[in-house]
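--- STAGE predict ---
source: upstream dedup step, 1 unique chain passed
mode: sequence only
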Amino acid sequence: MKLVSKLIVLVALAFSAPFVHAAYTAANLEKLCNDWSGDVNAGGYSLSQPMILVHATACESFITGYVYGIKGTMGTDDKGVLGTYTIEKGVTSPQAVKVFTLYLSNHPEEENKLAGDVLFRAMTQAGLLAVVPQKSEPAIVQQKSEPAMPLASIVVKSTPPGADINVDGKWMGSTPSTIQLAPGEHEISVEKEGLRPWQRTMTVTAGGSSTIDATLEKPRKLSGK
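--- STAGE serialize ---
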């Protein structure tokens, strides 16, 4: 007799499966869960009630799969905060069913919404499900850099022309030329082979302009005794 009972239930499950999975609005899931009771878990339904057992089994499968399936996954809470879903320790499927049906009775406007979404809100409101926010890396505060100061424009000429222009030991071109220097103090020399170099320490200001007109002379000859 028990074998026949199980066979009838299996046949009923097979024929009702398309209906069960296609009708998972909150209202339909509530209808299935209304048939889930202690009698079902104890196997107390008779052969005259196979569909009740089918409905109860469908409800149990959905609720259990949801509770254990969502645990540890990533998602957002109702405020859009990203984190990991956690289930309160010791939560049972019957407890989740009770919370779901109670929530839906207080929110009839959600009857036609997806059962999973409504179950999520019900368990969250009851404190059975929570979102543990991700630990974010400390924000890197970028310091605002000071705006670059404008360069100074220096016109460098020499007599005779064609002399090398060196600034702080670096060659910058030949005379006549206009060079750009950062504000501050610089060592400037104008040199040409066979002539005495022209050398100065010069302080330039941001955005300023100056002209250097260096006269290069021949080395003085030492008079013999």
